[in-house]
């Protein structure tokens, strides 16, 4: 065992701090905007409804809304009858979510290292929340999703489509320091498959800013 003075400090990836600090900054204005946009996404809500029906058909169970932001999707999942709770990297977002939906559970956490036991979840929703994750870090995220889902558990993943790596200086009227990554559905499906998922449905739709895609997937029952 190395001496404490020589042991390297455990640090999180730099991109996580950029996401956290940026969303803490934009949280109030972001919350006002995205709840309105969500109401204008019938196809996305239809995919969430299908996800909820599939989870119920499998016997139900705990569902994590990972990257929940201000909690509107968590609340929508609960309205669909799911036992849903939210996780977000930004403490300010979690504060807003808990204030807005006090009957729901929200906690601070990172999708790169979920503070959840193996196999606890019946479902995971990641709704536009991988936008700021570098593509090379997605295998880590998808491995965490797979680890925390029960065998036969379900995932619905929404993301923005394209090939661009963006570095905005401002967003929602505030300075930000995160990067954004548009992804091709074939790449995301490949990475999910490599992480042990079976992708069962794909949805492509126009978005307010960029094209959008949603993938439904599940872990294997004999995992």
UniProtKB/TrEMBL annotation:
Keyword Transferase attributed: yes
One Gene Ontology biological process: methylation
Keywords: Methyltransferase, Transferase
Sequence ranges assigned to domain Methyltransferase in this UniProt record: 63-153
Pfam annotation, one family: Methyltransf_25
GO molecular function, one term: methyltransferase activity
CDD domains: AdoMet_MTases
Name of the protein described by the UniProt record: Methyltransferase domain-containing protein
Organism: Kibdelosporangium aridum
């Amino acid at each position: 065992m190395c001496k404490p003075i020589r042991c390297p400090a455990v640090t999180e990836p730099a991109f996580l701090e950029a996401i956290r600090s940026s969303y803490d900054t934009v949280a109030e204005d972001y919350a006002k905007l995205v709840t309105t946009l969500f109401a204008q996404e019938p196809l996305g809500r239809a995919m969430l409804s299908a996800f909820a029906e599939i989870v119920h058909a499998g016997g139900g169970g705990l569902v994590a809304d990972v990257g929940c932001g201000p909690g509107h999707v968590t609340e929508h999942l609960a309205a669909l009858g799911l036992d849903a709770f939210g996780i977000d990297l930004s403490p300010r977002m979690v504060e807003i979510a808990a204030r807005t939906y006090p009957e729901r559970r929200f906690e601070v956490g990172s999708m790169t290292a979920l503070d959840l036991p193996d196999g606890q979840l019946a479902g995971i929703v990641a709704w536009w929340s991988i936008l700021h994750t570098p593509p090379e870090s997605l295998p880590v995220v998808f491995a965490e999703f797979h680890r925390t889902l029960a065998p036969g558990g379900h995932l619905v993943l929404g993301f923005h489509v394209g090939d661009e790596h963006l570095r905005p200086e401002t967003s929602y009227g505030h300075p930000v320091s995160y990067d954004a990554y548009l992804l091709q559905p074939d790449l995301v499906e490949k990475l999910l498959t490599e992480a042990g998922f079976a992708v069962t449905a794909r949805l492509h739709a126009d978005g307010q800013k960029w094209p959008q895609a949603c993938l439904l997937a599940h872990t294997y029952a004999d995992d």
